[in-house]
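Structure tokens please, single chain.
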Amino acid sequence: MIKARAPVGQMSSVVAPAKDSNTMVPKEVELILVKEQNGVQFTNSTLVNPSQTIIENEERETWSKKIDFLLSVIGFAVDLANVWRFPYLCYKNGGGAFLVPYLFFMVIAGMPLFYMELALGQFNREGAAGVWKICPIFKGVGFTVILISLYVGFFYNVIIAWALHYLFSSFTTDLPWIHCNNSWNSLNCSETWYSNWSSLDAEAIDYTYKTTPAAEYFERGVLHLHQSTGINDLGLPRWQLTSCLIVVIVLLYFSLWKGVKTSGKVVWITATMPYFVLTALLVRGVTLPGAIDGIKAYLSVDFLRLCEASVWIDAATQICFSLGIGFGVLIAFSSYNKFSNNCYRDAIITTSVNSLTSFFSGFVIFSFLGYMSQKHNVAISDVAKDGPGLIFIIYPEAIATLPLSSVWAVIFFIMLLTLGIDSAMGGMESVITGLIDEFKFLHRHRELFTLFIVVSTFLISLFCVTNGGIYVFTLLDHFAAGTSILFGVLIEAIGVAWFYGVGRFSDDIEQMIGHRPGLYWRLCWKFVSPCFLLFVVVVSIVTFNPPVYGSYIFPEWANVIGWFIAISSMAMVPIYAFYKFCRLPGSLREKLAYAITPEKEHELVDSGEVRQFTIRHWLMV
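Here you go.
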């Protein structure tokens, strides 16, 4: 044994060979720690495999610049739903009064949960599954959010393909959704809006089934929905949409294949472009006749609506989905931060930007809706819609009536394209980072694994670009990330705040940013946010309605498939917990202790010191 004398109060390490030097296999070495205090030497020695040490100490890839991370998070959180969902909810639920429950839930749940996910990923420097080394029995929730992100990718990429199709169709002097004289139009196509069908002369013409050129272009010209009778009659993929989907997949692959070094550069365009376009559209929109009426309708305050439970439910669910909590994306992105990055400041900035963007987009949308309302002499309620119908039917129709309509159409669909791409990049990065961090051998083959993920996503997405693809799209949209994502965030919050412990989690944050979170944040993590999430999960189940598309009602077997998709992701939590519990050694008590104790503290379990078995752990805030 080789020893070295260390200065008083200091510690040194000496490496001594533990095997014959002529052996060709990787050598084990003996690491001897020598400490001397008050004339007494203390030593500790362990056998170390050099190859393991190298792997464990390997530096994790980090963002080139701090702004790359911020733009990536903002680009993911600010997506198409900010344009088509929030403004409509605000209008439907009392206008400006809707901001009361929205901001309330943002402060007590949205920001704390967003902050928690950023801190969780940054401290543990792992993806959505790997971070659960802090409480191994909860690793199943990591696989839950990874699976949900994968499911969402199956249909979300199709929206981007639609936007790309519209973008290509906009490069013409005469936009294809203006008139009824196209090959895809039916006899029911009408270029005139009617707000009150019953007051018309029904004997002269049946206005009940009249549709606009924009609606027919989307459903018949793009989707070819008229060639399908339902989800049991899908047909083959349409080559036009398939080509657009291939372009989307190629863009995603080359944005992700090298990790955050490439995706961090792409978001400089995809995350900033929408703000320039929204501003340009707002400047144009407010100059249109009727725009002020639309904005007044958007902001009109009706505080009596706050007495309705549905308004609070809409605000709560919008908070969960608009911030992108629970998809594993925030954990994945923050895991590439430097350890000392101020994730608290990042959480405040990005959640604020997200909410302001949602509010700002409402002015853009309703200035055009007010214009459409006045132009066709109909109520705003007749043109105010949410979902794909707003951005692929109502808004294109409004743009088509403007001078230089093709230019405005190109600008608008470029915005949709950029909004969708960076959100899709975030979802794919969650899957890729989560799995390569869990299965370390994939690190050496990131490019191939990324190709495998995006190609797999493309193959499933082909079902959404068939004649009846909109039915598959609607089914996935309804079940893939509804109750399941809320359930995942609830389990995540319980795992961090109660089993790992708010006190321990606060200590981790203090190591990173230099100060502990305040009492407000700790109370939200421990009590308020879990109760909020439990409320939203219960409400989402109680108020569940089967999916519909227009007048089409899905058959029972389709709903069964939908619930299977939802349950398959949620089932990862109990399945992995059972698997982990069975694999752990020892008695029932020891298995439980190992399962809920951070992996780096397992030696304490051997000595009988388990924090989670003390009352103090559960009462600490």
